[in-house]
Design brief:
This protein is mostly helical. It has one domain: Four Helix Bundle (Hemerythrin (Met), subunit A), CATH 1.20.120.
């Protein structure tokens, strides 16, 4: 995996950067899975018998923060690595591409949908918030779940030879074993 970067310090910093970037798909999938759990929790909190609004607000804002962290890591990864080609058989590739295209098309709407929905909730414009949330929630949830599905298909079920499992490039192996020793 060739990472485009500015010149780095000589003591293995480029190797450390490459190792760190190698873990970002796993970080991204973890962030997507976390967003999924938070979205469902936020839904349960507001739809439950007790309508726990304060907890709902906190959980949904946390889901938004997790999604922002995901987007940041996603952009860093793809800026440095580019795209990763699906390596599975053609019939599975068709399924993968359908999931991927629907994921991408809906993912570009999530920041706007979530931002407007959060704003309306913050301004206590409940009826408008609820109308927007009826669209935002299922789209955001679908994008979070399919993000994990895409990760599993791309990096675990049909991994590229350019992307060996993360355990094969442990960042710990790159660290010096004693003070003053460079990797």
């Amino acid at each position: 995996m060739n990472v485009r970067s500015a010149p780095v310090a000589r003591c293995g910093a480029e190797d450390l950067l490459n190792a760190w970037i190698h873990y970002l798909p796993t970080v991204n999938a973890t962030l997507n899975a976390t967003a999924t759990v938070l979205l469902v929790a936020g839904y349960v909190l507001i739809k439950g018998r007790r309508r726990r609004e304060t907890a709902h607000k906190r959980v949904m804002l946390t889901a938004f923060g997790v999604s922002i962290a995901f987007l940041t890591c996603y952009l860093i990864y793809h800026f440095n690595v580019g795209s990763v080609r699906f390596q599975g058989p053609s019939d599975v590739r068709t399924v993968y591409l359908i999931i991927l295209v629907s994921h991408i098309l809906l993912a570009v709407t999530v920041p706007v949908l979530a931002g407007v929905t959060i704003y309306l909730g913050y301004r206590d414009l409940r009826q408008r918030h609820i109308r927007w949330a009826k669209w935002t929630f299922p789209i955001w949830l679908y994008v979070s779940v399919t993000g994990v599905v895409i990760y599993v298909m791309l990096y675990h079920l049909y991994p590229s030879a350019d992307f060996p499992p993360a355990g094969e490039h442990s960042i710990i192996e790159k660290l010096p074993s004693s003070a003053g020793e460079s990797p």
